[in-house]
Amino acid sequence: AAERAGGVVLVDDGGREQWLAGVWPAAELKAALAGYGGRSLKGLLGPLVAVRLALRGRPWFDCDTMDDLEEARMNVLNEWTALACKELGIDPATVDRDLILDLTKEVAHGVARPAAPLTAYLLGLAQGAGTAPEDAVAKLTTLAKNWSKATTETLTDD
Q1: What are the CA-CA distances from residue 12 to residues 16, 45, 74 (Å)?
Q2: From the centroid of its chain, how far is CA 28?
Q3: Where does 59-96 have alpha helices with state H?
Q4: How distant is the alpha carbon of residue 17 from its chain centre?
Q5: pLDDT of residue 69
Q6: CA 152/CA 158 separation, integer angstroms
Q7: Whole-number Å distance between alpha carbons of 110 and 58
Q8: Which residues, including other chains, have CB under 8 Å from residue 121's CB and lie 6 or more apart?
Q9: Nearest-angstrom CA–CA distance, 47 and 9
Q10: CA-based angle 35:40:44, to the nearest 5?
Q11: How far apart, in whole angstroms, are the C-alpha atoms of residue 142 and residue 101?
Q12: What is the DSSP letter of 55?
């Protein structure tokens, strides 16, 4: 027997379909859309589902509000930090993520966007050389805040 054609929808940990996380055959979706008078995605997409896919963990973030979106961004950042620390043999408890983000934001806005990752790398070198991270961050933040003044003085030196 031929398998039923249709779409695939992601199912969350609670068994709920996540209608925006799916794949739908274009022809079937167009036909369903042309004949659908309702207002819900479930009503439109439900009849098209051939497979419900449940993935382990939480590979998605249900973002209905700006707060949800910010939480999702922080979750991704937390996961990245944990995995990068594991890969590099660093204790994640020793990483002050918010301090680094504040520094790189200051550099990106006060100096130039490409200077932000370079600054983070230089900070890592300074830490490896024994400079206290708090001291290095304070020095770099001050430099970034005073960048226009520092470059004006440098450009006008004779």
Answers
A1: 5, 16, 20
A2: 33
A3: 66-88
A4: 23
A5: 84
A6: 12
A7: 36
A8: none
A9: 11
A10: 40
A11: 15
A12: -
* Pair 63, 75: CB distance under 8 Å: no
**137 vs 1: CA distance, rounded Å:** 66
Write out the two tokens for 137: 């961050």
Structure tokens at 148: 């226009």
Flag whether the pTM goes above 0.70. no
- CA dist 9 and 42 (Å) reads 11
Taking the C-alpha atoms of residue 8 and residue 50, their distance in angstroms, rounded to an integer, is 6
Sheet bearing 7-11, strands edge to edge: 17-23, 7-11, 49-54
**Furthest-apart CA atoms within the chain: distance in Å:** 86
- What does the pLDDT look like over 28-66, one tens digit per residue? 999 999 989 988 999 999 999 999 998 876 666 777 888
Helix (H) or strand (E) holding 128: helix 115-128
Query: Strand, helix or coil at 23?
Result: strand
Q: Where are the domains of the chain?
A: 7-54, 61-90, 96-147
Ranges of residues in the chain whose predicted pLDDT is under 70: 1-5, 57-60, 153-158
